[in-house]
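So, can you check this record?

>
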Amino acid sequence: MCSKDDQTPTNIHPNAALMNGFLKEKEHRLIYEQAVRLPSAANLSRLNSAFQQFYIEIQLTNYLTTTLSFYASNYSKHAAKKQNRELVVLDQPINEEHDNSKKDMLIAREDQQVYGWEEAIQDPGLFSAIQELPDKQKEYLELRFVHQLTHTEIADKLDISQQAVSKSIQSALKKLRTVLSKGALP
């Protein structure tokens, strides 16, 4: 006899999670059931096509997540490295010849261009796709991937619901996937 503790599967096939994800969608489940019941060449081709599209989306999501995570980590490393280079006393003059202080240099003037985290992205396709996002979605992506805050922390910081943050981030990633899949995939 098996106890409740022994009922956990020990050997799960690696593709089981992929298939479960594919079959979670009602449309995919219907295509699969039709292909199993009526195994014609057209039904099998339709199933194969739907699965390939699903798999491409999975790969694109993985690529986007990895890329954003890499650039966010890289950005954080460079920012920390620059911050720890030297101790700066802001009220001291730059040098003996100038009356301006280092503090004055830090304040952005109207004629200066201020750079954000998007400029750290070197992939032109990803950069242009991010530029097309609304400002709120860019802010959420920055807080999530650059500052590595959780959805709950972002919601608390911006005084909105965690579900709104999650929905907005998912929507932004979906838009990025759509834009990048049109230009990046064969």
Summary: The CA atoms of residues 23 and 29 lie 5 Å apart. The radius of gyration is 25 Å.
